[in-house]
Specification:
Layout (H helix, E strand, L loop, with lengths): L1 H11 L26 H7 L8 H12 L4 H9 L1 E6 L2 E5 L10 E5 L16 H6 L3 H15 L6 E3 L23 H16 L4 E2 L16
Parallel strand pairs: 3-4, 4-5
Antiparallel strand pairs: 1-2, 2-3
Helix pairs in contact: 1-3, 6-7
Length: 217
């Protein structure tokens, strides 16, 4: 089910080719690893539309899963960590046998991490304090516009937790609010904003992100 859900997002929202909205010229994405296919280029070459209806996406995802062997399925849901390599902090590696181009993933909760010529947006905590759904959506929309030309297919951004109930939590700023309902509303608006650009939004830190001692354990 995890793999199916992931592929539904992939099939339903392919990454569109980025365009400079001022000059109207096409933007060349930052390249991935030398051995990887850039999904932005791949989608363009195969005339993949930026958006599809859910039923079509589900059918495509199911058909794709049936082509994979067990090792390939494992690769799809585990990925590869690549800190400080190119524009990706992690990758879903390509499966050339079935024409899957791979995906580049990058943090973060207030904009593109480990990159130049990008913005540092207000933190989730500040956005949540506004109680303004329209503004929170616009924040996500503009964030997505900066992820896309970097060649990033999945934004590891919006954070559901920590809720901020522990005052010493070093990641409190990533979450939207101590109130779970407000956090849910803000997350939904942010997802819609980011994904309006054809970039997948990945909500993270659902639970257990409050501890600072041995945080990476």
């Amino acid at each position: 089910m995890l793999l199916l859900g992931y592929l539904l997002l992939l099939a339903g929202r392919a990454v569109a080719r980025p365009v400079n909205e001022v000059s109207g010229t096409l933007i060349t994405p930052v390249p991935f690893y030398d051995h990887m296919i850039n999904p932005l280029t791949w989608f363009l070459a195969h005339n993949v539309p930026a958006f599809r209806d859910w039923k079509t996406a589900e059918s495509m995802a199911n058909n794709f899963i049936w082509q994979l062997n067990l090792t390939e399925k494992g690769s799809m849901v585990t990925g590869k960590l690549a800190i400080s390599v190119g524009s990706c902090i992690g990758n879903i590696l390509p499966i050339e046998r079935v024409g899957f181009p791979g995906l580049c993933m990058q943090d973060g909760p207030n904009g593109v991490n480990l990159a130049d010529l990008v913005s540092a947006f207000p933190s989730g905590l500040n956005a949540g304090a506004s109680w303004n759904k329209k503004m929170i959506y616009q924040r996500g929309l503009v964030m997505g516009k900066e992820f896309r030309p970097k060649g990033i297919a999945v934004a590891l951004g919006l954070s559901a937790g920590p809720l901020g109930r522990h005052a010493l939590g070093g990641c409190n700023w990533e979450g939207f609010s101590v109130d779970p309902y407000l956090s849910g509303v803000a997350i939904e608006a942010t997802i819609r904003g980011i994904q309006a650009n054809g970039v997948q939004a990945c909500a993270k830190h659902i639970v257990a992100n409050k501890q600072e001692t041995q945080n990476a354990a």
